[in-house]
Amino acid sequence: MKNKLSTNKNASVKNENVAEPCLVCGSATLTLHYQVIICYACAAFYRRSVKINQSYVCQRNDGNCDVANRKVGKPMCRYCRYKKCLEIGIRDSKAEKDDKEIIEEKVCKVEMPKNLPEHETPITESFEEVFKKAFIILEEQSSPFSNLSAKTDYIEAFGKLLSDFMVETKPKQTLILINNDNIRLNFLKDFYLNSAKMLVKFPPFASLPLKEKIILHQEFWQNFHCLERAYQACKYYGYDQNDYRTPLDNYQYYDSSKPEKHFSRFANHKPFILFFQPLIAKAALLQNLIKKLKITEFELTYVCLLLLWNRYELSEMHDSTHELGAKIIEQASEDLHNYYIEELRMQSYAARQAQLFKLAHVVELFVCEKTKTITAKNLFEFSKEIFPYCTFELSYYDFVNKKAFY
User: Fold this and answer.
1) Max mean pLDDT range (21-35, 130-144, 236-250, 322-336)
2) Which residues fall within 8 angstroms of residue 230, CB to CB, at 6 or more apart?
């Protein structure tokens, strides 16, 4: 920009007395703030957001609102307004310095919201008792599902169940940095049980023998948890590939790029850090892939069906179950084809569909790596005080290793 700026650090008047549109909201302005053409209101909004370390959620949940073309009477999307501020290059060293200081202060002094009485008490039941609840849920049986020749919209049917599920798991308020393991533990327990409830509402799954339902749920729920959390992160934080914050539950988040922020208690345990680094790398791979794709809920449902039914490695399953799974994936793929052609007007989609298969594979790699770190804990006898997983995850792992499912 050729305009000469005044000595004022944050604002100056341009030489030409001609109003120009604010690069954020489009309003006319004669003043430069932060060395870019931005109006006073947007400059104040940016400064306030930095000062209080505020997190925003997009009004449309896609991070692409046109803040310069908003409807009269409708408030501007704060998430997209702040995103636009960053895109046009607003950077103020003092604001960034203050921001870092405020973030550090919040990490030390943050308090949990006080309206969570049901989540503040720790779980006292053992995982065996939790599994009994899941067992009772999975016992629900429907008539045999044998009508494979009929055209069934599996994505629509499972998508409705998935949508209802995610209404309960999405953030309930502004997320804060993790500092309460009881909330995290209760969320995981509910996720485990509610994922079983979701599956038994899907007729092809509910018709299976109990043993096979237990096996499939065991294989599915952790992969589903990993994928669903990454998807919720995109909906809540947007698609910036340098932002690795992920909701842990309805109220807390963690940043996988800065594990020392959350789990400083193991900072001096080098063997553990060596085992933890591959997991961090796979978390970054997953986050980058899902943000790059910006998958829709329709595509999310398709990936969930892949994770549930594409289980040819499970020798315990009957051939008829593998046949059912293959048919479901085949018909779901046809539905995906129609979705791309008719709704998205995408004539060439093979590469994108391949990315969905890759996403399912990366999710499985992440869960596998997570299991390896728990194995390392037992092998090297890391104490509970330094290990970053909650009690529910460790109890589940021990329970699975005992082959206590069936």
Assistant:
1) 322-336
2) 246, 286, 287, 290, 363
Q: Has residue 3 got a pLDDT over 60?
A: no
Q: Does residue 169 form part of some domain?
A: yes
Q: Answer yes or no: do 125 and 105 share one domain.
A: no
**pLDDT of res. 330:** 95
Residue 311 corresponds to which tokens in the numbers above?
């289980």
The CATH number given to whatever domain includes residue 57 is 3.30.50.10
Task: Decide: 61 and 295 in contact? Cβ < 8 Å.
Answer: no
> What is the span of the domain harbouring residue 44?
11-109
User: To the nearest whole number, what is the mean pLDDT of the chain?
Assistant: 79
> Do residues 173 and 101 lie in contact, with contact meaning Cβ atoms separated by under 8 Å?
no
Co-location of 62 and 202 in the same domain: no
What does R_g of the chain's alpha carbons equal in angstroms?
Answer: 24
The count of domains in the chain is 2
- Is 235 in the same domain as 252? yes
Give pLDDT tens digits for 287-302. 999 999 999 999 999 9
What is the domain-level CATH number for residue 291? 1.10.565.10
Q: How many CB atoms lie within 10 A of CB 136?
A: 11
C-beta of residue 58 within 8 angstroms of C-beta of residue 81:
no
Helix, strand, coil fractions of the chain, as percent rounded to 5: 60, 5, 35
| Bridge partners, residue 392, by sequence | none
pLDDT tens readout for residues 76-101: 888 888 888 888 877 655 444 434 43
